[in-house]
Specification:
The protein is mostly beta strands. It is built from 2 helices and 26 strands. The protein has 3 domains: about 1-150, YVTN repeat-like/Quinoprotein amine dehydrogenase (Methylamine Dehydrogenase, Chain H, 7 Propeller); about 180-255, Sandwich (Immunoglobulin-like), CATH 2.60.40; about 265-340, Immunoglobulin-like. The strands form 7 sheets. A 4-stranded antiparallel sheet has the order 1-2-3-4. The longest helix is centred in the last third of the chain and has 5 residues, at about 265. The radius of gyration is 23 Å and the shape is globular.
Length: about 350
């Protein structure tokens, strides 16, 4: 198993069964140097099963099927920086048991891990740029439409490495003009309007400026911002370096209904209708602690489920025939509702 860091300056290689080797890599000359070795005994009995590095090239994540660890690539002593993050929840899956297996850094800046066995979910490291437990590992973080595992894993090559400015290899003189990109998340807090912003820009920006759309700004790379009230906000990120700058703006819908904001209607789908044995809730938008509630025709609450981005599956095998009503809440505010029939 081999892996380059997102900036191409680190190379990781498993040397089963002995352990993990980390080397510096010169993209200009192709020379490897400064090897660091982490023996299997220091990682786990089975050795590395998956490797992934954070978007900002700060942390390395090493899975061993049963355990997940983090290493600080900027530490003077990388092996000693090992931090335990999680042990697999082997009681959750039935009949198969999940594991921490192959891992990949996705374009959204999160790390996704598939299981060695076939299960309906992937584990997710939500904030890989944070140290330790603040990285927020969710073992059941991404719902899959079917059972997947083993060698199933997507692959995202690092297309946007950019030139090595000032080196003899940069013969075209293109320079690294930054390209802005970001996402937002709603973490589990007591503040319903608190939003976490994460930049996932390309081509080596060195400065960040956020405009949150409520007359508040920040120059932090990963700011957490609390809005005073629900609404529609135009959030803009400007990234800069010595060669130029780039700005990306996106619309944030915070605690408002889809009737007020039609774009939400196309991002949320509840199907099929009439219901069969399974109800699917597709949610292609980030919402604040989204919950799905199902009521019978008398208004009695039957089910309440916390949703995740993507496709969520809800068994309706035990529901009798009849009329049902549903609502989708974000931050405790209803943003969508409808009715279903089971024949």
């Amino acid at each position: 198993m081999t892996l380059f860091s997102p900036n191409g300056e680190k190379y990781f290689r498993t040397t089963t069964p002995s352990g993990l080797q980390i080397l510096d890599f010169d993209r200009c000359t192709g020379i490897f140097s400064n090897p660091v070795f982490i023996p299997t005994d220091s990682i786990g009995y089975s050795g590395p099963a998956g490797l992934a590095a954070s978007h900002d090239n700060h942390f390395l994540y090493v899975s061993t099927n049963k355990f997940l660890f983090q290493y600080d690539l900027l530490a003077t002593d990388i092996p000693s920086s090992k931090t335990f993050l999680a042990q697999i929840d082997s009681t959750y899956y039935n009949p198969q048991k999940g594991t921490f297996h192959h891992a990949r850094l996705a374009p959204d800046g999160k790390i996704y891990m598939v299981s060695l066995n076939y299960v309906p979910e992937m584990a997710v490291v939500n904030f890989p740029e944070r140290p330790g437990l603040a990285s927020r590992v969710d073992q059941h973080g991404y719902q899959l439409p079917a059972l997947y595992g083993n060698d199933f894993i997507f692959n995202f090559p690092h297309y946007r490495l950019g030139p090595i400015d000032g080196s003899e290899c940069d013969t075209l003189g293109l320079d690294n003009y930054p390209l802005a990109n970001f996402r937002w998340d709603f973490e589990d807090t007591l503040s319903p309007f608190q939003v976490t912003f994460t930049e996932v820009s390309s081509y080596e920006p060195t400065a960040w400026h956020w405009d949150f759309g409520d007359f508040q700004t920040s120059n932090e790379r990963y700011p957490v911002h609390t809005y005073s009230q629900p609404g529609v906000y135009q959030v803009c990120l400007r990234v800069s370096n010595a060669y130029g700058s780039d700005t990306l703006c996106r619309t944030l819908y915070l605690g408002v209904s889809s009737t007020e904001n039609p774009p939400l209607q196309t991002a949320i789908e509840v199907f099929p209708n009439p219901i069969q044995d399974i109800l699917w809730i597709s949610m292609e938008v980030n919402l604040n602690h989204p919950k799905f509630r199902l009521y019978d025709q008398y208004g009695r609450l039957l089910r309440e489920e916390t949703l995740r981005p993507g496709i969520n599956e809800l068994s309706t095998v035990t529901l009798p025939t009849g009329m049902y009503f549903w609502e989708l809440l974000s931050g405790g505010v209803r943003i969508e509702a409808g009715k279903l029939v089971k024949g």
